[in-house]
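U., I forgot to send this yesterday:
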Amino acid sequence: MTYTDNMYRALFYPTRGMLITGGAIIGLNCHAASDPISIKAIAEVERSSSSHGRETTRLIPADRVVSGDTVIYTLEVRNTAPISVPRPVVTYAIPEHMTYTPDSAVGPGTEVAYSVDAGRSFDAPENLKIQEPGGQLRAATAADYTHIRWQLKNALKGNSVAFVRFRARAK
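Result:
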């Protein structure tokens, strides 16, 4: 199955993602004009090709995704102000039709946490629990994650960019 343009936009640019900076929560797609932080989400897939006996792999825009494809999400976190923003926090929703790939969330100088309750709380993977219908608790798996949060360990300098990334597989 391939995705239509509307499904593509919903999958790769969800409006549920949030940016938290200085205590204010700002939707990724609706920043206030005075907010110095902007986020650009880029969704790509790896494609391999052979030429003259050599195989090459490159990233291409994820405009056609089928079940089983792995999508690489790169979030460009840009401080457009001339002054530093102290330790911004970036929270991003894993698209509904995707399953997070374990241990793939990265970002230089960041601490990564996950949510299994639609972004209400975050913790390290080993601390996340899911309550089963019978009331029993079980350890959460990557398939249970709903959101990822990156806490930058340092301030984001004025007019600079930080990148964070994760992978997810189309259901």
